[in-house]
Amino acid sequence: MNRTACLPMGASLLLLWFASLGFAEEKQAAPLRIRFDNYTVELPAGWNNTNPDRENPNANLVLSGKVPYEFIGSIRVGRSKPRVENLMYMAKALAGKEGKIDEKPVDVDGVKAIRFTSKRNKIHEPQVGVIFLRNEMQYIAIGAGEGDFNATEAFDSFIASWKWLD
Questions:
Q1: Does residue 7 fall inside a structural domain?
Q2: Could you tell me if 11 and 18 are in contact, meaning their C-beta atoms sit under 8 angstroms apart?
Q3: What is the DSSP letter of 4?
Q4: Residue of 98 and 24 predicted with greater confidence
Q5: Three-class DSSP category at 13
Q6: Nearest CA among 94, 86, 99, 162 for reference residue 124
Q7: Which of 22, 122, 142, 148 gets the highest tally of CB atoms within 10 A of its CB?
Q8: Among residues 52, 54, 50, 30, which one has the least CA distance to residue 42?
Q9: Would you place residue 23 in the very low, low, confident or very high pLDDT band (cuts 50, 70, 90)?
Q10: Residue 115: how many CB atoms within 10 A of its CB?
Q11: Would 75 be classed as within a structural domain?
């Protein structure tokens, strides 16, 4: 008797046995929560954090395309002293001429933010974003996509997962 011919049958039976116990069930891993200085967020599925420095408040997440180093999506957060007095002015400038400002503010873990969208399709230009003040600091978070990729869904999930640490 050829032992190699029995191996697939034996392996199949073993797999069925594990499946009956629940071990072979494919389970989705819990979303990865990452920290940036004074807040945490969930990393959207498939995205990578390019700034592993936990003390740095500036997030930079990217989504790779089909070839290495081809980024089709980007989510970035910047924090600084306020640069303008009027956040609406800044939001309109970031949205551009064809963009729009949402009528209702977005909640970023208890902080009201102005949300804007645009029709841009370049990785370095915002498609969607929020701007807000907290503890005398200005935060700007933007999502961008290259070509046909729209970063809005991943960005909105990112913002909804935001939790302050202080």
A1: no
A2: no
A3: H
A4: 98
A5: helix
A6: 94
A7: 142
A8: 30
A9: very low
A10: 23
A11: yes
- Would residue 11 count as lying in a domain? no
Is 128 within 8 Å of 116 (Cβ atoms)?
yes
Is the pLDDT at 13 greater than 50? The verdict is no
- pLDDT reported for residue 11: 39
Q: What is the CATH number of the domain that holds 121?
A: 3.40.1000.10
Residue 142 domain-assigned (yes or no)? yes
Q: Which residue's entry shows tokens 């503890």?
A: 135
Q: pLDDT-derived band of residue 14, with 50, 70 and 90 as boundaries? A: very low
- Are 74 and 65 a contacting pair, CB within 8 Å? no
Please name which of 145, 136, 28, 134 lies closest in space to residue 76, comparing C-alpha atoms. 145
**pTM score, whole prediction:** 0.78
Tally the domains of the chain: 1
Distance CA 122, CA 97 (A): 16
Q: Measured in whole angstroms, how far is the alpha carbon of residue 136 from the centre of its chain?
A: 25
Distance of CA 146 to the CA centre of its chain: 15
Q: Which residues span the domain enclosing 68?
A: 29-164
Phi-psi region of 25 (alpha: psi -120 to 50; beta: other; left: phi over 0): beta
Cα Rg of the chain (Å, integer) = 22
3-state helix, strand and coil shares in percent for the chain, rounded to the nearest 5: 20, 35, 45
